[in-house]
Amino acid sequence: MLKLDEIWQKTCNILQHEVTSASYDLWIKSLEPLDYSEGVFYLSTSSETAKQRVLKLHEEQIRTALTEVESEIKDFKVLDPDEKENYLNKPQVEEQEVNKATPLCNFNPKYTFDNFVVGNSNKYVYAAARGVAEHPFDKINPLFIYGGAGLGKTHLLHSIGNFLIKNNPDLKILYVTCEKFTRDYVESLKNSNSKANTEYREKYRSVDVLMIDDIQFIANKTGTQEEFFHTFNDLYQNQKQIIIASDRPPKEIASLEERLISRFSMGIIQDVQIPDFETRLAILQKKAQQEHYSVDDDVINLIAEHCDTNIRELEGMLSKVSFYASLLGKPSATLEDVTEALKDQISTTKQNLTADRIIDCVCKYYSITKEDIIGKRKNKEIVEPRQICMYLICEMLDLPLVSIGQLFGGRDHTTVIHAREKVSDLIKENNRIKVTVNDLKSMANRT
């Protein structure tokens, strides 16, 4: 494990990109690393007020960043000056007592199935994870979860762990990153003695449930792949549960041996997809409720529209807006606060988003030409994308209706109004149209 100062410095490097400069200078910089014990990283700060502000504004961001830097850290605590003094002067616990009570791993108590927002993008992987938690060692083994950064893989792994600990307290559960698995393996080789090798294998092969995160880092590590292959076989043959997470499917992990790809395919391989608009909305609403943020509905809608690839970034944007409003002493964050607090993240997209880009996205999505969409043809294959395109331009750009009509072959503004209202109604009653519109919004914002 890294030294305290190294862990905190790397954590700060992450947080600098997650919080506003003002918030970082005011609250994060005031924290100092104090200790690490039994999965908890202790920080000290200058006052009780500073402690409360840090926990209210950035508790989850700090916890996530610490876990990214060092997977063995499962929680953190901030101590004010009095608490720091009491902590440093606490009586030393007998060493044998500590050893007796040390668990294999600790899971973040905030990551549970109950607070995981389920939507179209993740309902299948959620069902698979829940199935493993409720019936380990049964039909789903191994469970391989993959998806991009910040989409909820770690949340699901911790949810499984928390559920198993609560309902099967006697199980031996080990959760590590691939980096930690590799580090332990290299350490066992460095010692060059049979005892070190035996201890290493005992650690990983005597568990009931093994959870490996970020398995993609096993790429190009021939020795680690060999060791993991034998560990996998040993656990599987003894009917132990294996759960693996990655940022890509097995076949896309560079230089991954075929025999490992084959082993991973013995169970279920399920992806976590980019959340759709409704899921992003639900995530933000839940986050606001959990953190007691006071924000207008328009703020949540705007953030959900503009951030569609990363849940961590989505929640970070909400935290920034809430913090900015609190600095100004406002009772609730408004659209005006979004414009100012997130100008570096939202304005770029807005400046680049044009009617032509939206039209191009719709043409690409429906495999039609621009001449089709702005022309006079009225067959069904053209009318639907044309109306959806008008609706999107109305919703995503601040353009006069007359100007929008001109883009579509000089049509009257009443035609644009009709298209906007019709698509708006269809979204409420036709799931296919709703999904199409959300997909097109994402395409336009990403292009």
Q: Your description of this structure?
A:
With 447 residues, this protein is of the alpha/beta class. It has four domains: 98 residues, 2-Layer Sandwich (GMP Synthetase, Chain A, domain 3); 149 residues, Rossmann fold; 75 residues, Helicase, Ruva Protein, domain 3; 94 residues, Chromosomal Replication Initiator Protein Dnaa, Chain: A, CATH 1.10.1750. Helices cover 60% and strands 9% of the residues. It contains 22 helices and eight strands. The protein has a five-stranded parallel sheet, sandwiched between helices. Helix 10 links the parallel strand 6 and strand 7. Helix 1 packs across helix 3 and helix 17 crosses helix 22. The two termini are 41 Å apart.
Our estimate of the beta-strand percent is 5-15%
CATH topology type of the largest domain: Rossmann fold
Q: Count the beta strands.
A: 8
Determine the CATH superfamily of the largest domain: P-loop containing nucleotide triphosphate hydrolases
CATH C-level name of the largest domain: Alpha Beta
